[in-house]
Amino acid sequence: MAPSTTSSTSATPPPSAPPPFTLFDADLTTAPKPFRNPNAKPPSRRVKNAKQIISDESKRLSSINGPGVMDKPTYINVEAPPSVIPRKWWCDITGLRAPYRMPGSGMRYHNKEVYEVIKQLPPGVDQQYLQLRSANVVL
């Protein structure tokens, strides 16, 4: 007897690879969050901008002291003496701290290398640099 070529069991195709994972497949809103307190509530505190804070402060002070009378320092009437800290000067070429000033033109510079660059500037360019910081002298 000859063996039959048909078999009673059907052949199944080999398993295929899973489809590629994308970020659209990741739905993080439905993922469990065990680190979160289920009884937590969002804060009910309202955030105010500076204009609202100043307005509320002036209303509060006028109700306490009377209109126009402010004896204590507040956000509105802060007055301070002039600063005793020396002013910071900046280089006209590099924008770095400038401890030196060129006596002829008044340009400020950071170090010796910048000084060499300033000395080689053509006439009138130094006034253009000074004009950037509104320190140019028109003769």
Question: Can you walk through the features of this model?
Answer:
This protein is mostly helical and 139 residues long. Helix content is 23%, strand content 3%. It is built from 3 helices and 2 strands; from the N terminus they run H-E-E-H-H. The chain has helices at 50-65, 112-119, 125-132, and strands spanning 100-101, 108-109. A two-stranded antiparallel ribbon has the order 1-2. A hairpin with a 6-residue loop joins strand 1 (100-101) and strand 2 (108-109). The chain is flat and about 100 Å long. The N and C termini lie far apart (123 Å).
What order do the helices and strands come in, and which of them pair?
Elements: H1 50-65, E1 100-101, E2 108-109, H2 112-119, H3 125-132
Antiparallel strand pairs: 1-2
Strand tally: 2
> What string, H for helix and E for strand, traces the elements in order?
HEEHH
* Spatial arrangement of strands, main beta sheet: 1-2
Q: Which value, in Å, is the CA radius of gyration?
A: 38 Å
Mean pLDDT: 78
Work out the helicity level: 10-25%
Shape: flat
**Uncertain ranges:** none
Strand content is under 5%
Q: What does this entry show, briefly?
A:
23% of the residues lie in helices and 3% in strands.
